[in-house]
Amino acid sequence: MTIRVAVAGATGKMGQLAVRLIEEADDLELHAALDSRSSLDLMLGADVALDVTHPGASAQIVEFAAGAGIPIVVGTSGWSSDRISDISAFVRGHADAGPVLFIPNFSIGSVLGSAFAALAAPYFDSIEIVEAHHAGKVDSPSGTAVRTAELIGDARGESGPVAAPHADQRARGQLVSGVPVHSLRLAGIAAEQRVVFGGDGETLTITHSTLSSSSYEAGILLALRSAPAASGVTVGLDSLLDPGLPGTAR
Fold this sequence. Notes:
Dihydrodipicolinate Reductase, domain 2; alpha/beta; 7 helices; five-stranded mixed sheet
C-alpha cells in the first residue's frame, strides 16, 4: 500500500528533506507540497499530513488536518504540554478526528538522550538543560528541551521538584516542568542539547549533537509510516520506537 503524504512547509529545510525522502521511498507518494501561500484544502485526500512549518502557523494546520480526519505528524517546535492537551481534548471530542503525532525531534539519538535523562532524573536533585540551535531558530526553548524537561519532571515523581535556586533571576533560565532551561542561538551550530546533573562530588552530562540533517531521516520515515495506524494523540518518537522507553502517549 502506498501512503500519500501532504507536506506543509515543503519549501523549508525540513520540508525539502521530507519531500526528498517521500519521493525516494517505494511505499510513499507526495500528495501535495504546501508553502505559506497554499490552501490547506490541498491536504484533502492525503493519507498522512506532515507539518514542518513554524509555531505561528502550526496550530491551524493541525486543527485542519485533525478535523478533516487526516492523520498528521507534527514536527514543528513550540508545542507546550498545555497546547497539546487542547488538541487532545479536540481529538477526544470528535469521533472522526484524525490522529495527531507530535514529534519534537526526529533524531533517534536525541530521543535516546532524552530517555537516558529521564532514567537519571530520580537520582539527582540538581538538573539543568542547555540547548543550542542555529541563529535563525525562532522559538526557545526548543521543543526537544521542553520534551526532555517534561520527561524529567514526570520521572522524578515522588522525588519532588528539581532544585532550582534563584529561579526568579532571568539569567537562571526558563523553568519547564521545574527544570531550568538555557537556550543559545548562534551561527555555526546545527543543534545540541546538554542535560547536566549535579550530585554530591560529581556531575553527569548527557549530550546529543546534530551534525547533519541526515540524522532526521529514519525518524521522519518511521513517523510517516506509523501515522495511518495511530489513534488519539501521541507525543514523542520514543512512543513509536519502544514502549519501554520513558515516553508519553496521550
